[in-house]
Amino acid sequence: MASRILLPLLLFLVCSHGGSAAPAGRRGMRVPPLAGDPNSQVKFDFSPFLIEYKSGRVKRLMGTDVVAASADVLTGVSSRDIAIDPANDVRARLYLPSFRATAKVPVLLYFHGGAFVVESAFTPIYHAYLNTLAAKAGVLAVSVNYRLAPEHPLPAAYDDSWAALKWVLANAAPGTDQWLSQYGDLSRLFLAGDSAGGNIAHNLALRVGEEGLDGGAKIKGVALLDPYFQGRSPVGADAMDPAYLQSAARTWSFICAGKYPIDHPYANPLALPASSWQRLGCSRVLVTVSGQDRLSPWQRAYYATLRSSGWPGQAELYETPGEGHVYFLTKLSTPQAQAEMATLVAFINRN
């Protein structure tokens, strides 16, 4: 359960560490590398997430625990795992609430956080969160397990999210996936994700707006929960630390193997032209912000830019003061997290 303790650090670019090339070691103690041994010589230290060695070996420091799909006794939600793209090991965990009866329910694609480098759809923290969300919102949730960097640098996660969306659309037809075809209502299709997963959900909605979906399917809403958005130029007084901005750029380069600068629209939507904002492929957007999140200036700027872009949809901003990045994952039972969950549930179930 180490991820339950460490997950509040999931700032994606880690505000306190920023992926700087610090000496490797555990509990603050340096482990001296063996001379000439590439398996012990650090290439990039992305603590507290992972360390990459010169040999190419990657040691993940968190987010590796997994739990099996199950019938959850606390929420009554059933889950099972499916393969989306076996060739690329893209998988998902489906969640179905117990009170489904014969009615069709909204379908929610969810993308986990973890800096694009750790966590999965199967870790305890996300299994608990999706069980709770599926029960409270009454949704059929598809929690996507995309490929991680640095072994699979961006845009792999974006490509996998697109494959997952296409899988959902293809498997809602009669005679395909038993849950989606029987219970999924694709007229109420939503995307959501936290931190890096929020970044994925946004970029997936952009692609939907540019390319459209098979059969004229539409995304009704996108929920961006403390999303990772960042750029080289500071936004607001809270993002003026040059050392932090430089560190953020280094870690972003690590995640995408240097393919895209940090001011690329993948990381910094503020760099998008107005025409892209106007074509965002959904009718509603929810952006959540935690008051102590170092990324909050970019999150608020995203909301403001969307509102003023000419996009014809409805945008909503929800702020939780005094809490850190993705606090709701580790404090699921607190009043603040419950209030945020209620906002997300209302967003999904609004007519």
UniProtKB/TrEMBL annotation:
Superkingdom of origin organism: Eukaryota
Gene3D superfamilies hit by this protein: alpha/beta hydrolase
Matching Pfam families: Abhydrolase_3
Record keyword Signal present: yes
Signal peptide location: 1-21
Residues at the catalytic site: 195
Domain Alpha/beta hydrolase fold-3 positions: 108-328
One Gene Ontology molecular-function label: hydrolase activity
Keyword annotations: Signal
Name assigned to this protein: Alpha/beta hydrolase fold-3 domain-containing protein
